[in-house]
Amino acid sequence: MTREARRPGAGSTTRTPWSQTLAVVYLVLVAGVFLSFIAYPGPVFDQRTYELVGVACAVVSLGFAIRGAALGIEVGSEKVLVRSWFRTRRLARVEIVEVSSVIYDGWRSGRRPSATTDTLQLRLRNGRSVTAWGIVGSRATVRKRVVRLRVCLGLLQQNTEPPRRRARERRSRRPS
Predict the structure, then answer these.
(1) With contact defined as beta carbons under 8 Å apart, do 37 and 51 qualify?
(2) Which of 4, 61, 66, 83 is spaced 20 to 30 A from 50 at the CA atom?
(3) Rounded to two decimals, what is the model's pTM?
């Protein structure tokens, strides 16, 4: 058996952990609220309908919580998976030419541009753009993810030298 050569960045995942964690915790709590419909029936519906509504809403909330745990971008040796809340896109790795941070204007902000939140966008060779709605966070967080993804995709060369301090460089340049 021969193993194919692994491309740099293959197997890495880009996510915004705080955003994902908050979404998953929120959805699990919502599921708990809906399950409480079973324990504390309301006066409006009969008991059976109340239980069915509670269980159905809890199942939907838990489904979104599971999906929330899988949000992000996974870089493989040939493909890139972009997982958002409602869609998973499979892109050829060689088709991606640019990774950038854009202002978030999704459903969380009421479809209006957010002043503090960004999301990640991939530009393809054919000119189309794919927005990763699952990567949402502060500008600094998303920009860190952009740099990491550029390095994983080979769009930005990673600096392998350790950072040097300028003071040390100046001292070493002084004649003795």
Answers:
(1) yes
(2) 66
(3) 0.66
Q: Reduced to 3 states, what is the DSSP secondary structure of residue 140?
A: helix
At residue 114, the pLDDT reads: 67
Strands of the chain (E only): list them: 12-14, 72-75, 79-83, 88-92, 96-103, 117-124, 129-138
Q: What is the 3-state secondary structure (H, E, C) of 61-74?
A: HHHHHHHHHCCEEE
Q: Taking each helix axis from N to C terminus, what angle separates 47-69 and 17-39, rounded to the nearest 10 degrees?
A: 170
Q: Are 50 and 39 in contact (CB under 8 A)?
A: no
- 118 vs 11, 41, 135, CA distance in Å? 24, 42, 8
Specify the pLDDT at position 5: 47
Amino acid at 92: A
Total count of residues recorded for the chain: 176
4 pLDDT higher than 70: no
Do 37 and 102 lie in one domain? The reply is no
For the cut 60, the answer to whether the pLDDT of residue 68 exceeds it is yes
Q: Are residues 76 and 140 in the same domain?
A: yes
Q: What's the total number of domains in the chain?
A: 2
